[in-house]
Amino acid sequence: MAVETVVPAASAKAANEKDAEKLRFIEEMTANADAVQEKVLAEILTRNADTEYLRRYGLGGATDRATFKAKIPVVTYEDLQPEIQRIANGDRSAILSAHPISEFLTSSGTSAGERKLMPTIKEELDRRQLLFSLLMPVMNLYVAGLDKGKGLYFLFVKSETKTPGGLTARPVLTSYYKSEHFQSRPYDPYNVFTSPTAAILCADAFQSMYAQMLCGLLQRLDVLRVGAVFASGLLRAIRFLQLHWQELCNDIAAGALTPKVTDPSIRGAVAELLKPDPELARFVAAECSKSDWAAIITRVWPNTKYLDVIVTGAMAQYIPTLEYYSGGLPMACTMYASSECFFGLNLKPMCDPSEVSYTIMPNMAYFEFLPHGGDGQGPGAVVDKTQLVDLADVEVGHEYELVITTYAGLNRYRVGDVLRVTGFHNAAPQFRFIRRKNVLLSIESDKTDEAELQKAVESASALLRPYNASVVEYTSHADTKAIPGHYVIYWELLAKDASPSAAEAVTRDGVMERCCLAMEEALNSVYRQSRVADGSIGPLEIRVVRGGTFEELMDYAISRGASINQYKVPRCVSFPPILELLDSRVVSAHFSPASPKWTPRRRANQ
Ligand code: AMP
After folding, report:
1. Inter-CA distances, 505 with 416, 457, 461, 508, 512, Å
2. Can you give the residue ranges of the GH3 C-terminal domain (predicted)?
3. Ligand 1 site, residue 110, Cβ cutoff 6 A
């Protein structure tokens, strides 16, 4: 067993007594991982003993692992949908949790096209806050002097809705930023942001970003770290600077905020910082007007020591672009979390992105691990409950799917993340994030699976029927070369009357453009929200490839050792030679001409 030895005794190296206490807490939790897990499960089962859910499975008040594992099934969101729907509709009885459900957190994972609704309880905010509070003490072990400046973080809230029963439904970070925990946080010199809270709390994406960027520019020499939650968010901010630097410079030169920002609390907060500064305006304009944007981050914010963004999992595709814009600054992936539960943190935050491992904190929930591939074939297959392994018992090198039991009432819930054990910190395993199951395409927080893509292609290809044409084969690619990234779908068409003019007719008349939009309309609500409200995904593109291209694709795969009997068209491709092959066969490219429909309201019955 590889036991990590970096943080032990770290509390002795801590930047201050408060940090030392947090580091001791990490040591204590990880040294006693199994005992903490046992205690967490007993606590959860004791408080929830009388819930409808645990009674249904005859737990009879037992709080031990063996009874729990024998009686409680391993479930997915779809299994819990009836209970969740009842809570959403206003049933306040103790269905899943003995503590009242305070709100729903809307996951970027979707079910039937809508965000999953994760029940949460008030005290979970404390648990999330606790995990946040561990991040800087760890970071301070690796980077000195972070109390001497500020963090330029692009943080955003998203729109919220009410369920039919009146509970608020919103993303977990929106819930956190709007909480007292965040807004009334005590002053901490290691955690000072350049963004005014009013700018973070503004739901209008343009006004929020504009104000955050402006304040970042005004305090550019104070900035010691630049970040966003995910890499895609930071790249969006850079794109925003590319598009709006002239306007920002005008504001800086004049000492007056553009009238486009109308939110009075933002205007008030910005007014405290904004004074005419023609010299700064000239500097920013000179940097931004250069055609080469390499290392723009360190040029504009020269004291930046690292980027604080998640670049693991689906975000790894952005590493080269971030390296380019930051001139190779280290990228710190500090934590691993979800709407269901905050899981853990990276104890070596300055390591290379390819080396990132997260240590799951055993106090956050009760964690179990389903050996990957142990769920039979395909969705809906029944899980053999006995296969699940406890946190302390996972094995280095093995891959598992994460299963959680939370204080808020999820019991043996499959998160859908696949993790590989890379080692241990004390007795707590550390995990590399491998992937989220069933995600084919992702640009930002959107997650499109194969079934959703298939449905979207089917719905769009119906528009080809009047032309006697159909889609014979398709595949897709998340194109992130430009910001914002966009979905590219390669279509091979078959015109039934086989005349070249019929095929041509399809690619004229705006039919393909309408197909692009029809595909977008059929994709899930997180995709559409990113397109419409956030502008963080660009218009979907269909590239029509010439007849026979997919056969060539198969020939290529077979030449590389694929079995002809087992060959299936990959529904998503990222391997450069395959992309090159596809792109060299493109006969026409078409973009969605408009935004798909999206409103914060959920579609009926979801
Ligand atoms: P959400 O429920 O929308 O907050 O999404 C949570 C999901 O985002 C997780 O289950 C992971 O699939 C992904 N995720 C969160 N943190 C990380 C991370 N540090 N690295 C890779 N993927 C992550």
Report:
1. 43, 19, 15, 5, 10
2. 452-575
3. no
- Residues β-bridged to residue 103: 120
* Each residue's pLDDT tens digit, 547-598: 999 999 999 999 999 888 889 999 999 999 999 999 999 999 999 999 999 9
Q: At what angle do helices 205-218 and 264-271 cross, to 10 degrees?
A: 0
Distance, CA of 232 to CA of 236 (rounded, Å): 6
Sequence-ordered strand ranges (E) for 171-279: 223-230
Let me know: does 579 contact 484? Beta carbons within 8 Å: no
Which residue among 158, 311, 334, 338 has the greatest number of ligand 1 atoms within 8 angstroms of its CB, and so is best to mutate? 338
Whose Cα sits closest to atom 10 in ligand 1?
Answer: 338
CA of 76 to the centre of ligand 1 (A): 17
Candidate of 124, 135, 310, 414 to mutate for ligand 1, largest count of ligand atoms within 8 Å of Cβ: 310
Does the structure show a pLDDT above 90 at 356? yes
Measured from the Cα of 108, ligand 1's closest atom is: 3
Global model pTM greater than 0.85: yes
Q: How many CB atoms within 10 Å of residue 123? A: 12
Average pLDDT over residues 281-300: 98
Q: What amino acid is encoded at 351 in this protein?
A: C
Pairing of strands 428-436, 541-545: unpaired
Q: Say what the pLDDT of residue 380 is.
A: 54
Q: Whose CA is nearest to atom 18 of ligand 1?
A: 336
- Asked if pLDDT for residue 90 goes beyond 70, the answer is yes
Contact predicate 433/357, CB 8 Å? no
In the chain, % helix, strand, coil (3-state, to 5) comes to 40, 20, 40
Output the CA angle 386-389-394, nearest 5 degrees.
150
Whether the ω angle into residue 484 lies within 30 degrees of 0, i.e. cis, is yes
- Write the pLDDT tens digit of every residue in 232-251: 999 999 999 999 999 999 99
Determine if ligand 1 sits within 6 Å of the CB of residue 417: yes
503 pLDDT exceeds 80?
A: no
Element holding 218 (H helix, E strand) = helix 205-218
d(CA 116, CA 49): 25
CA distance 17 to 498: 77
Q: What is the pLDDT of residues 442-482, one digit of tens each?
A: 999 999 999 999 999 999 999 999 999 999 999 999 999 99
Q: Is 515 in contact with 459 (CB distance < 8 Å)? A: no
Residue 119 carries which side chain, given as an amino acid letter?
Answer: P
For residue 362, is the peptide bond before it cis, meaning its omega torsion is within 30 degrees of 0?
Answer: no
- Dist CA 292 CA 315 (whole Å): 24
Minimum CA distance residue for ligand 1 atom 16? 336
The protein residue whose alpha carbon is closest to atom 17 in ligand 1 is: 336
